[in-house]
Amino acid sequence: MDDSARCPCLSGEPYGSCCGRYHRGTGNPAPTAEALMRSRYAAFAVGDAGYLLATWSPSSRPDRLDLDDDVRWQRLDVLRTEAGGPFDDTGVVEFVAHYRTAGGRGRLHEVSRFEKLGKRWYYVDGRTA
């Protein structure tokens, strides 16, 4: 994805100075659970399975992740967050991710749990709502 394009997480920032810097590993890691969740959504949107695996908690990370090339992620709506700030060790983010496939439109409504290990946030798991 072009660094000057609008970031898929819909922060309003260009991809290169928003989630792109996390995907490339430049600078500090995502400072909050919500920032990590947004960067993970953007990774789905740009097809970066390596970043998704790297930001998945070692306690729940799958051995591999195959992304569906037919899914086009369209929009992210963050509904709420619980904790997950710079001084927390755990956090929850509820979101709706909208997508499109050849079969039509869909949405994923998930409540995701995150944990901070050292100075990095990781995705633990999520339940669909």
Automatic annotation (TrEMBL):
Organism of this sequence: Myceligenerans salitolerans
Domain YchJ-like middle NTF2-like intervals: 32-126
Name under which the protein is recorded: UPF0225 protein J0911_17295
Sequence similarity: Belongs to the UPF0225 family.
Pfam family, one: YchJ_M-like
Alphabetical list of InterPro entries matching this protein: NTF2-like_dom_sf (IPR032710), YchJ-like (IPR023006), YchJ-like_M (IPR048469)
Record-linked SUPFAM superfamilies: NTF2-like
Signal peptide range: none
